[in-house]
Design a protein that fits this description.
The chain is α/β, with parallel strands linked by helices. The chain has a single domain, classed as Alpha-Beta Barrel (TIM Barrel). Helix content is about 40%, strand content about 15%. The chain contains eleven helices and eight strands. α9 crosses α10. It starts with a strand and ends with a helix.
Length: about 260
């Protein structure tokens, strides 16, 4: 089976179609999806999905680009991460695309998430956009390598990928890898060690070719895996097996929690 390592099924574009989405996952061989929290206010929706559907798991965190939301403390994140369906801390990181003034509050929020992950002994799900140098620097300063995690929807070049791999992180590729002009991402897809690679949709965004322009959903992660197989000269099944095994290696307790 395939695993979608990053999706947002609680977002309005998908929230009313959960049963249909789960059915499509099963029909396309996708046996698990990780539902990502982006605010504490919306976390109950994410947890409800993971509690209701055995193929779904959850994270807890506050996205780096959101403002005017409740800031998490280390203790609160640790407590929330104790939920039996929560396997990771995040989505966290830095986003200088939307916050070009590089606010210190965003960096402090990232530090809080890393500290909580280390204490909770949960991997991190990291978002970085136009902020690779600071993201890697804070990961080193806060000891993110102690828990590892996922560099989600990876869009950087090979140098950044190598630095993340050196900190025991996995590289997760989205539908962007199917875009012909995404040369840096397609290069990374060919160079990342197969045992450190994950696939995702980032639903409802970034639908892969041939679904580009449509609302994305976990069933479409198969197109990401197909493209990676073509780029690497592998059989599709090899990419499926490797990325799924990688996911459950990173989240060893998840295998017992998922009923595809």
């Amino acid at each position: 089976m395939l695993v979608d390592s990053h999706c947002h099924l609680d977002f309005p574009e998908l929230a009313a179609r959960t049963a249909e989405i789960i059915g499509a996952m099963r029909a396309n061989g996708v046996g698990c999806a990780l539902c990502i929290a982006v605010t504490l206010e919306d976390l109950p929706r994410v947890l409800s999905l993971a509690e209701t559907w055995p193929v779904l798991l959850a994270t807890v965190g506050v996205h780096p680009e959101v403002t005017a939301v409740r800031e998490p403390s280390v203790d609160e994140l640790i407590t929330l991460a104790g939920h039996p369906r929560v396997v990771a801390i995040g989505e966290t990181g830095l986003d200088y695309y939307w916050h070009k003034d590089r606010p210190e509050w965003q960096r402090e929020r990232f530090r809080v998430h890393i500290r909580a992950a280390r204490e909770a002994r949960k991997p991190l799900v990291i978002h970085t956009r136009d902020a690779a140098a600071d993201t890697l620097r804070l990961m080193v300063e806060e000891g993110a390598a102690a828990v590892g995690g996922i560099m989600h929807c990876f869009t950087e070049g090979w140098t950044v990928a190598e630095a993340a791999l050196a900190q025991d992180f996995y590289i997760s590729l989205s539908g962007i890898v199917t875009f012909p002009k995404a040369s840096a991402v397609r290069d990374v897809a060919q160079r990342v060690p197969l045992d450190r690679l994950l696939v995702e949709t980032d639903s409802p965004y970034l639908a892969p070719v041939p679904r580009r322009g449509k609302t994305n959903e976990p069933a479409y992660v198969k197109h990401v895996a197909e493209e990676i197989a073509l780029l690497r000269g592998l059989r599709y099944e090899e990419v499926v097996d490797a990325t799924t095994e990688n996911f459950f290696r990173l989240f060893p307790d998840a295998r017992m929690k998922v009923d595809p």
